[in-house]
Write a structure and sequence with these properties.
Strand 1 and strand 2 form a beta hairpin. The two termini are about 25 Å apart. It is built from three helices and eight strands; from the N terminus they run E-E-E-E-E-E-E-H-E-H-H. By secondary structure, the protein is an alpha+beta fold. The strands form two sheets. Strands 4, 5, 6, 7 and 8 form a five-stranded mixed β-sheet that branches. A three-stranded antiparallel β-sheet has the order 1-2-3, with no helix packed on it. The mean pLDDT is about 90. The chain is globular.
């Protein structure tokens, strides 16, 4: 994965290069398994450090989420989350009800909020 002007370059599981524009990304979160291995918890941002391990996800305007394989990048999920926040400070970070519900209305509400935050961020630059 590589950050570029206005987006991210990455390689799919099939080995194909692809990209995701910054205005298509809504959220980033880290999931960890519970002690029993079955319950997954999405960490609140205040619990994330550079040493945080887990599964890293991006949520998109398409109502989908994609997992980033941090183990192939030589970085922890926490390091990647911090890098994402540095590049895209307007994103929703952490859990959001749209991730589990699949409700298109919830995704749209999140999209509207993130678009407003992005516009404010651009104005302040």
């Amino acid at each position: 994965m590589k950050f570029i002007n206005h987006g991210i370059l990455f390689v799919t599981e099939e080995g194909k290069p692809d990209s995701l524009d910054e205005d298509r990304i809504l959220l980033a979160c880290i999931e960890q398994s519970g002690k029993d291995g079955t319950i997954r918890t999405r960490l609140p941002v205040e619990e994330v450090t550079s040493d945080t391990e887990g599964r890293f996800f991006l949520g998109t305007i398409y109502g989908t989420r994609c997992e980033i394989q941090t183990n192939r990048m030589g970085a922890t999920a926490g390091e990647l989350l911090m890098e994402i926040v540095r590049h895209y400070p307007w994103l929703w970070i952490g859990d959001h009800e749209c991730l589990d519900s699949g409700d298109r209305k919830k995704w749209q509400e999140l999209q509207n909020m993130v678009e407003q935050m992005r516009a404010c961020s651009i104005l302040l630059d």
